């Protein structure tokens, strides 16, 4: 007997999740503010509820995938959450997740928060490598893991309800730093007779080759010794920064994405950390 699921929210992500549960034979009740978005799923076997309250009443496991935390409050406020297992996959901040968990608890529900590390085309495609971070009650996670693993992988990151959102935002923040660097690289070749398509695979391979550096960073942070195993020290790297800034100027490219990072490197060096690599920048960011 497959666990019955209620899903609130049929946006791009909710619809993708819904399809996988239907395909796997889980009885599914859905609700969406704009009812038209449920029509295709009804044809695929979903039960369509007329209201969020009716959808919540239908099952114990309530998966929520709405736009933001405000919409979650709006939608759940009109439902009876007593004895429900609420799994909230809506992107939020750690503080919002913790507050929403407390809010749900006061209404008699158990609560698990999720952060989705996938885009809709990766849902239901295990080879794509997507997954969802979960945090909150471990017991609740374990009870529903099999059902939650149907659309996409599951990674439990702790009892603190805010940790799924924190991991989600941490990974995406690093991604934006990577995209910023790639944007600068493409800008540098813009005015030259260099095909972006010839730079792109070199760039992708280089980023992949450099990525494991984060493992040494973690080692530094754990030991407190930021000089361990350093290959390219900070003094050398800061000495190289004028080359990057001058090249940007030569190519008519704004240094605005690179400069703030270089500024932190210079400050760390000025504080006497020339034998470290880049780990010390983290100390300057945290206040
Ligand atoms: P969409 O914009 O496609 O869908 C938003 C959903 O929220 C719709 O069902 C919409 O209903 C509903 N909604 C918005 N405001 C309200 C409200 N006030 N009351 C009731 N329902 C409301 O977003 P996605 O499906 O793509 O994303 C859903 C969640 O998943 C978000 O938190 C997003 O950050 C997260 N996510 C999405 C990813 C993606 O690539 N798409 C990747 C990772 C996470 P209606 O149809 O009536 O407008």
TrEMBL record:
Chain ranges of the 6-phosphogluconate dehydrogenase NADP-binding domain? 5-148
Entry-linked SUPFAM superfamilies: 6-phosphogluconate dehydrogenase C-terminal domain-like (SSF48179), NAD(P)-binding Rossmann-fold domains (SSF51735)
Please give the superkingdom of this protein's source. Answer: Bacteria
Presence of keyword Nucleotide-binding: no
Presence of the UniProt keyword Oxidoreductase in the record: yes
Q: Where does the record place the NADPH-dependent reductive aminase-like C-terminal domain? A: 160-285
PANTHER family attached to this UniProt entry? CYTOKINE-LIKE NUCLEAR FACTOR N-PAC, OXIDOREDUCTASE GLYR1-RELATED
Which family, according to UniProt? Belongs to the HIBADH-related family.
> What name goes with this protein?
NAD(P)-binding domain-containing protein
The scientific name of the source species is: Streptomyces orinoci (Streptoverticillium orinoci)
Its taxonomic placement starts with: Bacteria, Bacillati, Actinomycetota, Actinomycetes, Kitasatosporales
């Amino acid at each position: 007997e497959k666990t019955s699921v209620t899903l609130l929210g049929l946006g791009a992500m909710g619809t993708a999740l819904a399809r996988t549960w239907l395909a796997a034979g889980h009885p599914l009740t859905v609700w969406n503010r704009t009812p038209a978005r449920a029509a295709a799923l009804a044809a695929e076997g979903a039960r369509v509820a007329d209201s969020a309250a009716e959808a919540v009443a239908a099952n114990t496991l309530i998966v929520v995938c709405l736009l933001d935390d405000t919409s979650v409050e709006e939608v759940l406020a009109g439902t009876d959450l007593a004895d429900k297992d609420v799994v909230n996959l809506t992107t939020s901040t750690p503080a919002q997740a913790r507050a929403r968990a407390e809010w749900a608890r006061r209404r008699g529900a158990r609560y698990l928060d999720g952060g989705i590390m996938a885009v809709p085309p990766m849902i239901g495609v295990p080879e794509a490598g997507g997954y969802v971070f979960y945090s909150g009650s471990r017991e609740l996670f374990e009870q529903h893991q099999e059902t939650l693993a149907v659309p996409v992988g599951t990674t439990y990151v702790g009892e603190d309800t805010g940790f799924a959102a924190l991991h989600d935002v941490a990974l995406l923040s690093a991604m934006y730093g990577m995209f910023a660097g790639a944007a600068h690289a493409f800008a540098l070749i813009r005015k030259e007779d260099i095909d972006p398509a010839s730079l792109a695979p070199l760039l992708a391979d280089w980023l992949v080759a450099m990525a494991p550096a984060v493992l040494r960073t973690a080692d530094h942070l754990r030991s407190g010794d930021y000089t361990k195993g350093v290959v390219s020290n900070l003094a050398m790297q800061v000495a190289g920064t004028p080359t990057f800034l001058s090249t940007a100027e030569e190519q008519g490219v704004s240094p605005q994405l690179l400069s703030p990072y270089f500024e932190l490197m210079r400050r760390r060096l000025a504080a006497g950390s020339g034998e470290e690599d880049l780990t010390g920048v983290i100390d300057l960011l945290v206040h």
